[in-house]
Design a protein that fits this description.
Ribosomal Protein S5, domain 2, 7 helices, four-stranded antiparallel sheet, 8 strands, Double Stranded RNA Binding Domain, 195 residues, alpha+beta, elongated, 30% strand
């Protein structure tokens, strides 16, 4: 019986857990953010017009993680803050090898059509000003990007993020075909980035 009482006493005790302390500065330093667009939006209602602002923000660490956030608010600063928080919650992994993408990709999202091609070192990012922040914050330094459809900034960015999802590392295709990286690159490992 005394043993049972001890068990009951232990289970009734309140337990306090300390959350790991993280400085705000450390969280901010991890990701960089870029405001792509701020647009004034007017909604016509029965009593008149409701004015708000829509912000498009891209967040990334330049190491293969990047996110897109879109939010509206009555003022500019809260709209940017909301979009930034959304972007941090919706991060995607991008496969980056030798500061460029591993393979060419053509992507279609709604009316936007995007073509992305890997480029040689020193080429830089050749793209529109709308798409450039997403590529830079993903850690891509050399790429050729061409928009073949809609010029709407939000649609173009969503097309780029769809492309990021579909870009796979060389190891993925080697495993899919059941061959080694050396066979995939015809005996050359220059483009593979790893053995």
């Amino acid at each position: 019986m005394p043993e049972d009482r001890n068990v009951v006493k232990k289970s009734n005790q309140k337990r306090t857990f300390k959350k790991p302390s993280r400085n705000q500065s450390q969280v901010q330093d991890e990701f960089e953010e870029s405001v792509v667009e701020i647009r004034r939006v007017v909604k016509v209602v029965k009593g008149g017009k409701n004015l708000s602002f829509r912000a498009i923000v891209v967040v990334g660490d330049k190491k293969g993680k990047v996110g897109l956030g879109v939010a509206s608010a009555r003022e500019v600063v809260p709209a940017i803050r909301k979009a930034s928080n959304l972007a941090r919650r919706n991060l995607v992994e991008v496969s980056v090898i030798n500061d460029t993408i591993p393979h060419e990709i053509n992507i279609k999202y709604d009316a936007a059509k995007m073509m992305l091609k890997p480029a040689a070192p020193g080429t830089g990012i050749i793209s529109s000003t709308t798409v450039r922040p997403a590529l830079e914050l993903a850690g891509i330094k050399n790429v050729l990007c061409k928009s073949l459809g809609s010029s709407n900034s939000l649609t173009m960015l969503r097309a780029i993020f769809k492309a990021f999802d579909e870009i796979k590392p060389p190891q993925y295709y080697a495993n899919l075909r059941g061959i080694s990286l050396r066979q995939l690159f015809h005996g050359s490992l220059e483009g593979a980035g790893k053995e």
